[in-house]
Amino acid sequence: MESQANEAVLATQAALAQASRLAVQYSFSIIGALLLLLAGWWLSSLLSRWTHRGLLRVRGIDETLARFFANVVRYGALLLVFVTVLAQFGVQTASIIATLGAAGLAIGLALQGTLQNIAAGIMLLVLRPFRVGEYIDTGAISGTIIEIGLFATELRTPDGLYRLAPNSTLWNVPITNFSREATRRFEFKIGIGYDDDIDLAEGIMRDHAESDPRVLKDPPVTTHVDQLADSAVVLTLWYWTKSSDFWPTSREMIKKVKKSFEQNEISIPFPQVTYHGPKPLVALAERLTEAPEDR
């Protein structure tokens, strides 16, 4: 009995010594891991701030894009710290990295459409085909830009409606930006009768354009005969204005030219058809087009 008691005491002492060694060993590992986590957290925040400030100094980098890359740097650094901490406890990091890679691939396949919008959003923020406040048209989508996000772009239509467009739908199509250039050319076509004075009509169009203070002097105002159509001689007026004056100037110009043509008895003919045939039929057609009191 005494020998068994001694063996039990010795076994207990050995277990306590082993536990003490393990406690000392893992206590240092735990303390090192905590210090590593605190240092990694501080370093990741510092790298994130440096990245954000550095990108903002680059011309053409948007605030949203700078913040996105700053977060990528931060969480990437934290992931590296987490793997390093696990290595402190003897965990095989190769298997963890392989698992993270497989998980990233699965998430990427599941969120393929979302990642496509993010990639398109990054390209839109870097290349800047449009900015906030500019009016664009893609054929299917048009409106004034409210905000450009990583996933979608917010627009306001001319009739005051809110529209949210995924970035991939804006990146993969041609974009017409009506606000990017400082000046725009207005092209006004109008048809006059074949019997009307072409020089007089062109002079009226030029006078209205040149007398408007919003019309630029350079390039100069020009007019020309565009085509000899079936029912009219088509005249074209070209002039340049600031992009902000384009719409009000063009609407007023059309109204002024129409009124001046009426005052100078310059006709704007409707589509006409001339009939060539036997004289009796021509006489009958003329007779039918006369007013009842003239018959």
From TrEMBL:
Residues 187-268 form the Mechanosensitive ion channel MscS C-terminal domain. InterPro entries: LSM_dom_sf, MS_channel_1st, MS_channel_C, MSC_TM_helix, MscS_archaea/bacteria_type, MscS_beta-dom_sf, MscS_channel_2nd, MscS_channel_C_sf. The chain crosses the membrane at residues 26-47, 68-90, 96-127. It is a multi-pass membrane protein. Residues 114-180 form the Mechanosensitive ion channel MscS domain. Keywords: Cell inner membrane, Cell membrane, Ion channel, Ion transport, Membrane, Transmembrane, Transmembrane helix, Transport. It is found in: Cell inner membrane; Cell membrane. Pfam families: MS_channel_1st, MS_channel_1st_1, MS_channel_2nd, MS_channel_3rd. Residues 71-112 form the Mechanosensitive ion channel transmembrane helices 2/3 domain. Homoheptamer. Mechanosensitive channel that participates in the regulation of osmotic pressure changes within the cell, opening in response to stretch forces in the membrane lipid bilayer, without the need for other proteins. Contributes to normal resistance to hypoosmotic shock. Forms an ion channel of 1.0 nanosiemens conductance with a slight preference for anions. PANTHER family: SMALL-CONDUCTANCE MECHANOSENSITIVE CHANNEL (PTHR30221). Belongs to the MscS (TC 1.A.23) family. This is Small-conductance mechanosensitive channel. It comes from Ciceribacter thiooxidans. The lineage of its organism: Bacteria, Pseudomonadati, Pseudomonadota, Alphaproteobacteria, Hyphomicrobiales.
